[in-house]
């Protein structure tokens, strides 16, 4: 199938943010029919391979260039592209960045990102969410590297993903590493790993019929552990049906190394479902141990005051926790609440000593329901 400018109209969603998507179009949103997605391959875990924690040394960062007005709309797309270019250029100060772009927009991506970012036009994409569409790279501690794909299906067939469903395998092939399909459907943004055997995730994202119909929690958990080289999953209830991701964990809770984690914590005055979810995640993590029995030390990242940020969009996702750790730096967002932005920088500097903390204005991306972690995927050094 040749690269097309747009998918057929039946598969092209209205231009909506990820958080507002469901309330506007319902569960009959865009994407191929549930039954049309290829059968999930049986898990084939390579002996001794595991997905390391994000702060290990990287070979490169993978990103993708959005170019569809059918997804983003003509108003928001230019700003999102500018945000993607800013993130790519910033990361490229610290490590190589490989950015996937459709051939029709590769020249524009190169112009926006500059010469420090390598643009690749041989792997077509639907959108920019490389955290979810890209592969999970794994190491074996002896110089080996492979990749596993989580069978991306457009967050439960809620968005066009003909090309994005193939990105994980395409990236692995380009990187020259072996590729395995996981035994469950999901997105790497829905799973956090400490690199030492412990995962965390929301039930709303993965124990969900739009991803894993007919699979029990224990079966999904076993498939996750096989894919990541882990042995324990810490589950949060999450929030189902209120955003296109069904509440990805990486917008709220992150591992910061072995037996360490961070949770974006709301103001006392924040009482919506997202604030209650964050408080619940903090409580569960604070009472949890990792797979080795070590209590998890949880740090709060204070969320912003929504009355003081630049955006007034109710679907704006002001997630400090959706930061990205690269070689020598942490790439994070700032939203215009000066006190909270400064506090976030201080907290990240304490959690990641010796790294530069870069804070970027990514308001267009946040208006579309995502952040910096959502659009990046690390390739660790073997």
UniProtKB/TrEMBL annotation:
Statement: the UniProt record of this protein carries the keyword Lipoprotein: no
PROSITE patterns in alphabetical order: TAT (PS51318)
GO molecular function: agmatine deiminase activity; protein-arginine deiminase activity
Coiled-coil ranges from the UniProt annotation: none
BP term (GO), one: putrescine biosynthetic process
Domain of life from the UniProt record: Bacteria
Swiss-Prot/TrEMBL keywords: Hydrolase, Membrane, Transmembrane, Transmembrane helix
Transmembrane spans: 21-41
Protein name: Agmatine deiminase
Organism, as annotated: Amycolatopsis xylanica
